[in-house]
């Protein structure tokens, strides 16, 4: 997954994701697609997988590492669970490389638009919410 600035706006990225998920008729195929996206994420080093980078509120272990370059924010996120890893890939596609202002202006609850909100467990939704809160906090500085 690239760490360069995104070439399209957040709304376009979410629309592209919606269209990608709409290609699949059943949820098993959508879960496979989600997990495939998660496998594309860069692997974190053992030095990055430390307690300080763990996101509380996630049932699975999720590591979150923000980095600011000027006004752009970049994130490294990883999980030890395949579906959660896929959900983190979605977060990265939407928010990675964005300016703090862009991130602050977006309603972070884009999973509903993708049709995932009602198909992932409450604990996974809570975990994604915890990561999104970290993204928003990084954007606030």
From TrEMBL:
Xref: InterPro entries: Fe-S_metab-assoc_dom (IPR003808)
Domain of life: Bacteria
Pfam families, A to Z: SufE
Gene3D superfamilies assigned: 3.90.1010.10
Coiled coil: none
Residue span(s) of domain Fe-S metabolism associated: 20-137
PANTHER family in the record: SUFE-LIKE PROTEIN 2, CHLOROPLASTIC, SULFUR ACCEPTOR PROTEIN CSDE
Similarity field: Belongs to the SufE family.
Protein name stated in the entry: SufE family protein
Species in which this protein is naturally found: Roseococcus pinisoli
